[in-house]
């Protein structure tokens, strides 16, 4: 597959309703004996929130570092709006690395102004916008405090602000939700949606599947340096051909009666809610009837798409939180790829 | 390149000069510099009460007086070092030495053939330099005594003219002992200052890089500025902080030296014999110092930055610090040798070697004679090495700052230098 790389050239990718702005094409990268990227290819539509999923060590961080230009690919290229990213200024990108870090003894507002300054934002404008974002994330009181005095969650908010303060058209974020409490996750989600509505393209990796399902229109799942499935989330789900039912009952949540229902099986049991997959030919109505006939008190019955987590397991062969230990597989860990 | 380099430099500068480390080290160095500036006065003060007392016993009064007069001429000009007192008997003089009333007793006797015999009775406090001075002095006494008694025609005390070469074909100028002493002092101070600051500030650069890695702010930095901007900015900022510290440390020390004569007069009385330590400090030498400080620091800062990028934890810094410090120490030792032992062929060669020239050429400038072309070659080689080192250092830095958890080996350095 070859893309039109002329500057300004825009194409609409297969299945996408918006023009594609970011193209990751055939990326290869080795670190010693370890193959970090093995022909990784995917595309990201403009103005979307894009989920980049993979186990630890799958190649997500390496891909992001190559995209922003701090690491060179052995082969392949990353193209943004028709221009090779190696030719783009650094302020094209807003980057939130997986490993959080700020100058410990530097005052928060000074750090934000400093990083914005590196991206070419004038000092007074950076200060004003930084205060705006601190208010937006409900932490204006942190402005004059040193980074070392902040909680991890608050440090993460400051780092997010430093990634977006210069108004980049595309944001790359490595595990932005890690370490945040539910209130802050919700706040961050809201901020992401706001940024998307401003026309920015957001790409993030996360282990929180429900967040991806709630926010991302498109995803790419990467395993061992290759994309195993990618595209609009809805299409990916449809393409599985699998039908799911989410069922909640009062009483015995183990659903013992289900063993006598042919063509239906639990793929994810739960105390509150269980996910049941239906085989071809088995209709949801039949399952509901079987539940009622078995005396189950159904409190929730929903016909749903297959979950993203199930798709991930189908393609990668293990749950997302089951780490891939590249180091144990016979080589050093690629820089930045967390093997733990 | 420049806006970001300036921003990085400004941040480094402000963080450093506002740090407690900077304040403590500046105060400590200032106190040390003032102490060093006062050392000549302190030494004089210490010498003040240690004039050696020597007892003279002679066969007759004429010989005694001639010996005393001549010893005073040889030993006590321009500064009085010996107090020479005549005693009546040899036994009394020896007893006085035993009782520590005198450091030594000198017994002068004349043989029947007219030859003078001198016998020293030395106490426990007399040293080699004093014995040497006394020995030369009695030789002079004997010579003058002989010429007086034998009417040697045409004998004159020799006139000694000390001249110093100023360059090929440029002739010579009178040698000034005080000026030479001042040049030694200035050379020693410059040598120590440039060595300490290059190593210390170089370590600050490495420590800064490691701190940015260990706090993980590096990844944010490297996504916002290029490795070249970060390395050059850090070196500039820390170098400027070092220059600031120089000013703060040297200003009171130089003021002390400028007031040296007045302080000496106040403490030691008029005519204390303190030769101005700063008389050898010329604008040219100061310019040489500034040039070699800037270039030397630039070279070592680049190396320290690259080396610092290959370690992840502050405790691993020693792994890289030792070999780099050794490299600088070799240059420093040669500078000290040049200061004390003259300029040998190897030291002349070392003053062209870029890693050593900031120390050795600066010392040569202070105490020796350097031809303009020698200076230009040395600076040109240093600048060329800085340019080459910058390319390699930025490559190593770019590769190294994203390496975590791996201790640097030779292979890592080579691979990074090759840009892989």
Question: Describe it for me?
Answer:
The complex is a heterodimer of chains A (340) and B (420). Chain A is of the alpha/beta class. Chain A has 2 domains: 227 residues, P-loop containing nucleotide triphosphate hydrolases (Rossmann fold); 63 residues, 2-Layer Sandwich (Alpha-Beta Plaits), CATH 3.30.70. Helices cover 29% and strands 28% of the residues of chain A. Chain A contains 9 helices and 15 strands. In chain A, the strands form 3 sheets. Chain A has a 6-stranded mixed sheet with strand order 7-8-9-4-10-11, with helices on both faces. In chain A, strands 1, 2, 3, 5 and 6 form a 5-stranded antiparallel sheet that branches. In chain A, helix 5 links the parallel strand 8 and strand 9. The N terminus of chain A is likely disordered. With 420 residues, chain B is α/β, with parallel strands linked by helices. Chain B has 2 domains: 284 residues, no CATH class; 102 residues, 3-Layer(aba) Sandwich (D-Maltodextrin-Binding Protein, domain 2), CATH 3.40.190. In chain B, strand 1, helix 3 and strand 2 form a beta-alpha-beta unit. In chain B, helix 6 packs antiparallel against helix 8. The mean pLDDT of chain B is 82.
> How far apart lie the N and C ends of chain A?
35 Å
Instruction: Give the terminus-to-terminus CA distance of chain B.
Output: 23 Å
* Total E-strand runs of chain A: 15
Portion in beta strands of chain B? 5-15%
User: CATH superfamily of the largest domain in chain A, called what?
Assistant: P-loop containing nucleotide triphosphate hydrolases
């Amino acid at each position: 597959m070859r893309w039109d790389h002329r500057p300004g050239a825009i194409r609409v990718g297969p299945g996408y309703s918006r023009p594609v702005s970011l193209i990751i094409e055939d990326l290869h990268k080795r670190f010693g004996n370890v193959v970090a990227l093995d022909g990784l290819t995917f595309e990201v539509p403009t103005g979307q929130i894009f989920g980049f999923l993979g186990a630890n060590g799958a190649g997500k961080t390496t891909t992001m570092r190559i995209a922003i230009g701090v690491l060179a690919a052995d082969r392949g290229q990353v193209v943004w709006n028709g221009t090779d990213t190696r030719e783009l200024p650094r302020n094209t990108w807003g980057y939130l690395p997986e490993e959080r870090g700020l100058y410990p003894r530097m005052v928060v507002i000074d750090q934000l102004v400093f990083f914005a300054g590196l991206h070419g934002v004038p000092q007074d404008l950076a200060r004003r916008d930084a205060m705006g974002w601190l208010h937006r994330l409900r932490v204006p009181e942190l402005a004059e405090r040193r980074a070392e005095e902040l909680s991890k969650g608050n440090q993460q908010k400051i780092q997010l602000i430093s990634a977006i303060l210069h108004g980049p058209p595309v944001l790359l974020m490595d595990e932005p939700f890690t370490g945040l409490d539910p209130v802050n996750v919700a706040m961050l989600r809201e901020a992401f949606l706001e940024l998307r509505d401003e026309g920015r393209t957001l790409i993030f990796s996360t282990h929180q599947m429900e967040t991806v399902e709630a926010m991302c229109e498109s995803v790419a799942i990467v395993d061992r340096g290759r994309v195993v499935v990618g595209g609009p989330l809805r299409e990916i789900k449809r393409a599985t051909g699998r039908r799911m039912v989410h069922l909640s009952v009062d009483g015995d949540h183990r659903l013992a009666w289900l063993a006598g229902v042919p063509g239906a099986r639990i793929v994810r049991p739960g105390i509150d809610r269980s996910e049941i997959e239906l085989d071809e030919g088995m209709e949801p109505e039949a399952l509901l009837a079987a539940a009622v006939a078995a005396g189950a008190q159904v409190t929730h019955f929903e016909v749903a798409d297959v979950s993203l987590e199930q798709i991930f397991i189908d393609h990668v062969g293990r749950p997302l939180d089951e780490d891939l230990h590249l180091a144990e597989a016979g080589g050093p860990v690629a820089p930045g790829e967390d093997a733990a | 390149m420049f806006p970001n380099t300036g921003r990085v430099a400004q941040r480094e500068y402000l963080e450093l000069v506002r740090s407690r480390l900077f304040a403590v080290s500046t105060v400590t160095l200032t106190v040390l510099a003032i102490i060093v500036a006062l050392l000549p006065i302190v030494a004089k003060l210490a010498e003040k009460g240690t004039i050696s007392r020597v007892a003279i016993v002679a066969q007759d009064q004429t010989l005694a007086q001639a010996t005393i007069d001549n010893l005073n001429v040889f030993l006590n000009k321009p500064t009085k070092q010996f107090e020479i007192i005549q005693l009546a008997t040899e036994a009394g003089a020896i007893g006085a030495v035993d009782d520590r009333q005198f450091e030594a007793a000198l017994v002068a006797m004349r043989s029947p053939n007219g030859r003078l015999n001198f016998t020293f009775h030395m106490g426990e406090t007399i040293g080699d330099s004093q014995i040497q001075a006394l020995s030369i002095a009695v030789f002079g006494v004997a010579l003058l005594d002989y010429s007086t008694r034998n009417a040697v025609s045409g004998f004159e005390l020799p006139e000694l003219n000390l001249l110093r070469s100023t360059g090929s074909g440029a002739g010579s100028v009178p040698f000034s002992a005080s000026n030479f002493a001042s040049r030694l002092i200035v050379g020693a101070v410059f040598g120590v200052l440039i060595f300490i600051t290059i190593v210390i500030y170089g370590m600050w650069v490495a420590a800064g890089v490691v701190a940015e890695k260990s706090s993980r702010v590096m990844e944010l930095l490297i996504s916002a500025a290029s490795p070249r901007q970060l390395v050059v900015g850090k070196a500039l900022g820390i170098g400027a902080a070092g220059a600031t510290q120089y000013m703060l440390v040297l200003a009171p020390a130089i003021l002390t030296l400028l007031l040296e004569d007045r302080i000496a007069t106040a403490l030691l009385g008029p005519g204390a014999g303190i030769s101005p330590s700063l008389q050898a400090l010329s604008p040219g030498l100061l310019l040489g110092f500034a040039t070699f400080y800037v270039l030397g620091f630039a070279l070592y800062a680049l190396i320290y930055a690259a080396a610092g990028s290959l370690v992840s934890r502050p405790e691993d810094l020693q792994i890289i610090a030792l070999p780099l410090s050794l490299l600088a120490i070799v240059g420093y030792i040669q500078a000290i040798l040049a200061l004390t032992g003259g300029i040998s062929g190897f030291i002349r060669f070392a003053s062209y070697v870029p890693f050593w020239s900031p120390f050795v050429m600066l010392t040569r400038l202070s105490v020796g004679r350097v031809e303009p072309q020698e200076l230009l070659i040395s600076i040109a080689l240093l600048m060329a090495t800085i340019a080459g080192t910058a390319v390699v250092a930025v490559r190593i830095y770019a590769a190294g700052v994203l390496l975590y958890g791996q201790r640097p080996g030779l292979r890592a350095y080579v691979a990074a230098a090759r840009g892989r």
